[in-house]
Design a protein that fits this description.
Number of helices: 21
Mean pLDDT: 81
Low-confidence stretches: 68-116, 286-290
Number of strands: 0
Largest sheet: none
Helix content: 55-70%
Structural class: mainly alpha
Amino acid sequence: MALRFGPELRRLRLKAGLTLTEFSVALNYDKGHLSKVERGERAASPELARRCDAFLGADGKLQRLAVRTETDADGTESTTRPSRWLIGRRAVLSAGTGVLIDLGLKLGSEAISSTDDPLLPSFHAQFDQLRTLGQSTDPKVLLPLLETQTRMVAALATDARSATRSSALLLASRFAEFTGWMAQEAGNGDAALCWTGEAAELARAGGDPYLGSYTLVRRALVTMYGGDAAGTIALARRAQSSELPPRIRGLAAQREAQGHALVGNEVDCLRSLDRARELLADDARSGGEPVIGTSHVSDPAAMSTGWCLYDLGRPEAAAATLDRECRRLPPHALRTRTRYGFRRSLAHAASGEVEHACAIAQDLLDVMPAVPSATVNSDIRRLARELSRFRSSRAVRDLQPGLARVLAPAHD
């Protein structure tokens, strides 16, 4: 007979020699709620399942019992995809360049038709500025500009001299990858995957199979936010072959760790984090510019450790790590600060530090209108559920309207 969550939880609790009262105090959960869960009268939330699993050392068993089976969770995806996004150079020009922001580029007919080397540094500078703009701009506002610019750079690359074509295609790949990230932030997962696939094609056309492999890491991020742990792990492992550069392998190992954390596999999660830390340290020692992945998190492996510790049911350790790493984020990186800041608030709330969690969240809510994010909203929903257990708290009551405004469906 298949095991059920409630009875198995009670068996493991008794095996550990804990009374229900002792267990509820240790988890910061109501005793009556835990009793109903053990009797099968209430379903366990994913957060509770993680916490019980970690505290009782169940190695993911309780999480697996609590997780619903998804009908499409194999993480597979077609290896070939028709190019839906790139259009011809003539069509790009006929669409007009009025939407292009002026970043010092002269986009007259002579500049557009030029394939001289000086054009590429200008587009590189534009890309850097667009990434900076992405930290403080609504992704839905930025997306039309990014899509047009990606098509523009790709179209110019097709007409470039052979000496510059490869570099132009690789730059177009970076534009496409960032466009995919903004599409994900805007809540359009299908467009995110399509742009990411386009980035891989452009990278291969530019002669860089390594950059194409990084798109596997980006696809793994989409599956991670979709709750598909198996798909996340499978994609991340494909981006860790030994011939790839250390940074790509390190970022992939960190994504694999997040996949293991989703299912409570602490051993494999921590092993992947160790591997990520070593690879990213090797990349830092190489002195190469970290152009791939985040440019605002100084220690991605450490930040991911804090992220994973929460999913592993260890909120106190997660809060301590995220406190330290969030203090190192640059003030202007609003999107990155909200992304990790709400996870930090969530960890403090799960640790029972409700007022502190609310104070962190309140500061972040003040900047959310500038950087709305579908990915951040997933943690805001979890925070709202976590705080709902503390309705008697004045801090929670004061915060709830702000959380509700962020999570409310947008109306045109």
